[in-house]
Amino acid sequence: xxxxxxxxxxxxxxxxxxxxxxxxxxxxxxxxxxxxxxxxxxxxxxxxxxxxxxxxxxxxxxxxxxxxxxxxx
Length: 73
Description:
With 73 residues, the chain is an all-alpha fold. Helices cover 81% and strands 0% of the residues.
């Protein structure tokens, strides 16, 4: 559904202002490539925080506590 909205929005932009639509089509891959390092940093920090959380909650898990909300994410 999201990709359909993007295509319809681009077609509308192409009808209203075709140079801007062509510029958007050309610059989109460049912006995607520039955002890749930030995504990798975000994934790394998410993994780091998950590791810290697992280490901090290890004593509680060893004592028998079971988190019932862990499977719901």
